Amino acid sequence: MKLNIVTYPNKILRTKLNKIQNFDDPQLKQIIKKMKIAMIKYDGIGLAANQVGLNMRLIIVDMNNGPQAFINPQIKNKSFLKQKFDEGCLSFPGIMGYVSRSKKINLEYQDENGNKKSLAAEKLMATVFQHELDHINGIIFTDKIKKFTHGEDLFKKLQMKAQADEK
Question: CB atoms < 10 A from the CB of 56, how many?
Answer without folding.
Answer: 18
